[in-house]
């Protein structure tokens, strides 16, 4: 039995004892029955009201517990929804008090979690607001009155970290941009003018709004300052070029130039003002020395005429160049013409450089061609002959390639400009063809001259004797062999035994023996032929064929260079007449060939001109 039941039984027993005691008191007093009934009724009502009041209080307690359970359950469900947690499962078979206690305990834990999350959210929101104020960015997309989830709080923290990183990055960028701005303004001698420039230069760095627009504005300001600096530098450079040009034209002393060197290096505002003042001073001085200045400009114009390959007609078009009336207007015309020529040269610099390169290569090629015909080139030491031949071969290959490249560039330029590209008043390709044609004609002319010279030498050989040439041989000191020495001695003794009418000339180029007596060909007397010095030039094949006609008359005659006896007058007359007839024939034939080649050469020159 429960203690409460025992206490209830004791309460009933006490009540019964009390009633019995009251009954005894009433009996002893002698209270009538009706009054006893009244008094018992009062006792009953009193006890009943007391019990009813107690029951009512307990009923009220039960209702409060039920209401509290319902309220806490509703609040707990709400917290579960806000915290996005799974619903708490209540324990079954427990009393109302235990149930109310469990619900209240769970609700307090949920409230604590909610408070913790809200505090974290508040801190993050404050940080985000500060970053938004500095970076001028939008706040993080989370409601400040809603309970965030742990994932949302983690994402919010990550966002804050990213914002802090962006802030540090922009702050470093801002400091670097500010440094550049201060540097540019210092170079330009400029002070902050706009409110934005004052905020950047004068205000505290931490208070500056690091928005993207402001960073973009800073970069734009730097670009503007760079452009202004570039413009100043360009203006200063232009003034410097003008000053240098005027110094050269006016022949300003070196001491005066050195005194102005400070402004010829830097490009600050004060330097620009000094340069402008110097240009104005020199312009005024130029007007006072207009004659000398005009002559100096004409020299520059002539240089650019050469660079741009102007023809005589193109140069004659600028009539002011030849005027002797030196006025300011004439000087202006020369300045304008010089600027036009400079612009023309700069616009077509690549083409002009290519033409200059071709001309240099062509000149080098002609020099190598000329050296190739020089007989003394074989005596050069150090491998120069091999180098020249290699260079000539390379130029012979590179010139057509360069011409092809220039042709493509000129075709593109003519298609773009709608006019012809002229070199000395002539189309470049025609100019190149003419140069090659002149080169070919020059080679033909040299070939003709060699042919004529050879023909003349043949005629002289037929009339006066054959020149025997011994080529010079290179020998090291002490390298002569006994056999060669003996041969040279025999040849010398054979030559020295010739008649007094023979003339002997010796040198490095060979030995020449001449005799006024006509001599028969070598085939006339092979058995009695004297020995020829080693390395002597053999007779010309054409002479051998021609001399066969006189073999019958020349039998028994001595060979060229051998010891001979004086021939009879009859034999001399016959040989002289034969040689004279053949020499006239050769001269006439060579003269006809020379006339034909000269005519061809003249026609080619007329076609080129």
UniProtKB/TrEMBL annotation:
Keywords: Coiled coil. InterPro entries: MAP65_Ase1_PRC1. It comes from the Eukaryota. Residues 490-503 have a biased composition (Low complexity). One of its GO terms (biological process) is mitotic spindle midzone assembly. Pfam families: MAP65_ASE1. Residues 476-547 are annotated as: Disordered. One of its GO terms (molecular function) is microtubule binding. GO terms for cellular component: cytoplasm; mitotic spindle midzone. Residues 97-131 form a coiled coil. This is Protein regulator of cytokinesis 1b. It comes from Sparus aurata. The gene is PRC1.
């Amino acid at each position: 039995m429960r203690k409460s039941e025992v206490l209830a039984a004791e309460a009933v027993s006490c009540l019964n004892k009390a009633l019995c005691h009251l009954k005894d008191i009433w009996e002893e007093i002698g209270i009538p029955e009706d009054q006893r009934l009244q008094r018992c009724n009062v006792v009953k009502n009193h006890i009943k009201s007391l019990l009813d009041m107690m029951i009512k209080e307990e009923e009220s307690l039960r209702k409060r517990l039920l209401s509290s359970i319902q309220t806490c359950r509703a609040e707990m469900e709400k917290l579960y929804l806000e915290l996005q947690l799974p619903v708490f499962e209540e324990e079954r078979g427990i009393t109302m008090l235990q149930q109310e206690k469990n619900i209240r305990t769970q609700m307090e834990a949920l409230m604590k979690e909610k408070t913790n999350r809200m505090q974290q959210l508040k801190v993050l929101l404050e940080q985000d607001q500060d970053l938004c104020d500095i970076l001028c960015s939008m706040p993080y997309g989370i409601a400040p009155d809603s309970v965030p989830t742990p994932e949302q709080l983690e994402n919010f923290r990550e966002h804050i970290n990213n914002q802090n990183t962006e802030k540090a990055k922009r702050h470093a960028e801002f400091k670097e941009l500010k440094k550049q701005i201060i540097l540019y303004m210092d170079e330009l001698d400029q002070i902050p003018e706009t409110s934005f420039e004052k905020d950047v230069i004068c205000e505290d760095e931490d208070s500056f709004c690091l928005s993207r627009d402001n960073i973009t504005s800073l970069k734009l300001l730097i670009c503007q300052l760079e452009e202004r600096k570039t413009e100043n530098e360009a203006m200063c450079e232009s003034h410097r070029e003008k000053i240098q040009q005027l110094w050269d034209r006016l022949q300003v002393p070196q001491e005066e130039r050195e005194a102005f060197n400070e402004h010829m290096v830097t490009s600050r505002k004060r330097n620009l003002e000094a340069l402008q003042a110097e240009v104005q001073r020199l312009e005024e001085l130029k007007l006072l020395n207009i004659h000398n200045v005009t002559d100096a400009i004409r020299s520059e114009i002539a240089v650019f005429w050469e660079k741009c390959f102007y023809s005589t007609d193109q140069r004659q078009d600028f009539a002011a160049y030849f005027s002797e009336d030196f006025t300011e207007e004439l000087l202006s015309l020369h300045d304008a013409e010089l600027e036009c020529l400079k612009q023309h040269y700069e616009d077509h610099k690549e083409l002009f450089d290519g033409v200059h390169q071709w001309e240099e290569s062509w000149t080098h090629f002609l020099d190598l061609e000329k050296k190739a015909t020089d007989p003394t080139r074989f005596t050069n030491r150090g491998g120069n002959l091999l180098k020249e031949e290699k260079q000539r071969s390379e130029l012979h290959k590179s010139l057509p390639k360069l011409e092809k490249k220039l042709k493509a560039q000129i075709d593109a330029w003519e298609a773009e400009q709608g006019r012809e590209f002229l070199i000395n008043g002539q189309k470049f390709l025609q100019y190149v063809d003419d140069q090659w044609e002149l080169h070919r004609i020059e080679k033909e002319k040299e070939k003709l001259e060699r042919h004529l010279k050879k023909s003349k030498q043949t005629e002289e050989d037929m009339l006066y004797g054959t020149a025997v040439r011994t080529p010079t041989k290179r020998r090291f000191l002490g390298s002569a062999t006994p056999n060669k020495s003996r041969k040279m001695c025999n040849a010398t003794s054979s030559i020295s035994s010739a008649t007094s009418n023979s003339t002997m000339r010796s040198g490095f180029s060979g030995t020449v023996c001449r005799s006024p007596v006509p001599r028969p060909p070598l085939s006339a007397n092979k058995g009695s032929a004297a020995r020829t010095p080693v390395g002597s030039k053999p007779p010309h094949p054409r002479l051998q064929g021609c001399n066969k006609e006189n073999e019958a008359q020349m039998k028994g005659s001595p060979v060229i260079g051998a010891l001979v006896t004086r021939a009879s007058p009859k034999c001399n007359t016959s040989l002289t007449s034969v040689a004279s007839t053949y020499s006239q024939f050769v001269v006439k034939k060579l003269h006809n060939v020379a006339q034909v080649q000269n005519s061809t050469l003249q026609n080619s020159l007329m076609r080129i001109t």
